[in-house]
Amino acid sequence: MSCSKIFTGDLPEITIFIIQYLRNDIKSLHSCILVNRHLCRVAIPILWEDPFSVKCQPKNGISLLDMYFLFFNQEDKAKLRITTNLSFSPLFNYPNFIKVLNTNKVKSHIFDRVTLYSSTGELQSFLTSTSSIKHLNIHVDEFEASEILSDLIQSQPQLLTLSTQYSNVSLSNAAFKSYPISLTSIKFTFCDFLNVSSFDDFKYLTQLRSLQFIYCKGINTQFFQPLLDISTPSLEIKTLKVVGMIEGITLLLQKIGPYLELLELNLTNVLEKNKSFESVVDYCNKIKYLCVGNFDDGNILQLYNMITHNKHIKYLTIGNDNARRKSNILEGLGQILPNSLKYLILVLPIDPIHLNIFFDHCHHIDNLLIKNLNRNDIDITFKYLKNFVKEKKGVKNLAYYVNDIFEPLIHQKLEQMACEIQPFVKMKDFYESIVDISDFEISC
């Protein structure tokens, strides 16, 4: 009996294991569809979890969109002027398998199919034709599209993560009505909230675990108030990223501080920055990932306190993108790094003397990534780097990047110095080695 099952392929447990192993191998999954019905039933849902991430390659004249259009009703087809020659009944309800949808990738498929289209109408039809999407990434560059955003989001009751990016669009109150209570992660990028007067529906987002604001306008205490009104045991945000000019972040840090594990702060308002750093010291003690950018020398002591207060930090990024603003932070940093630290990323105009002082007190970094904004004394800096990895023997991976364009002779010298370090440490590409806060997002 067991042998017959093996030869007929009727072993569902093994089959599912094999298909899951191949879930990132699109070509193999397509091949599995042709083997037998059982493999087809297992492979199809995986292929349709994120169908638009695959480059549009129509086969036998049939594209992904042609198949998708079979599930549109006649009214939608007429409104969007969709014509298709397909008339057969699909074997599966493909839209129900979709878990991830990035509207930019949907647009690329639409552009491959037609020359002119109504992006708002077609994208709305795509989104509302399925109710099983869990991860939604929307890029809006039209005011009309922002007006219907609320309807699009409400049509997805199982939505877990939402990422929205706007270009030159001022949002209205309609965009923030009735967010699904299932949401665990929200990311706003380049969003303009100046015309939004109410965020009351945020008070129902008790499952929220991740919140990110990147270069947004109009965010203040009023924005955060509904979240602040949620009872503390119900609001356990563990990931927070704030970049740009934002007010009221201090109160949110006080609210979620005991639960916060991943934190990135890159604030431009000096007063808000100082208050936020103090709140991290006073209310946060479980941080494992800390990224701080755009700090001044006046914040160095606060930054030291943030590090010493959080003894479980594994990933630490310290950045100051102003190449003309040299910092003294390296002088005292080596003495306070926690034993738990695995990754250290420095984006600074580095003084080689300060770097050497840092190395003298630093003993336990597995991964060291440096982006040097200072093009002077490159040879001295490399000398200290070489001595450090040679003598301490604790660094497993090293990435070093100089933020400038050099003449060919200088570039050749840099490559030669990098070759001298390689026998003692594994050299990595700086940007490929960066650990971003989004890398820790909960996957469901």
Number of domains: 1
The CATH architecture would be Alpha-Beta Horseshoe
CATH C-level class is Alpha Beta
Name of the CATH superfamily: Ribonuclease Inhibitor
Could you give the count of β-strands? 13
Note poorly predicted spans.
1-9, 111-118
Q: Under CATH, the topology is which?
A: Leucine-rich repeat, LRR (right-handed beta-alpha superhelix)
Helix content: 25-40%
- Mean of pLDDT: 79
Radius of gyration: 26 Å
Distance between the termini: 37 Å
* Structural class estimated from helices and strands: alpha/beta
Per DSSP, the total helix count is: 19
Largest sheet data? 13 strands, parallel
Provide the β-strand percentage band.
15-25%
**What coarse outline follows from CA principal-axis ratios?**
globular
How do the strands of the widest beta sheet line up side by side? 1-2-3-4-5-6-7-8-9-10-11-12-13
Brief characterization of the structure:
This is 6126_t:CDS:1. This protein is of the alpha/beta class and 444 residues long. It contains 19 helices and 13 strands.
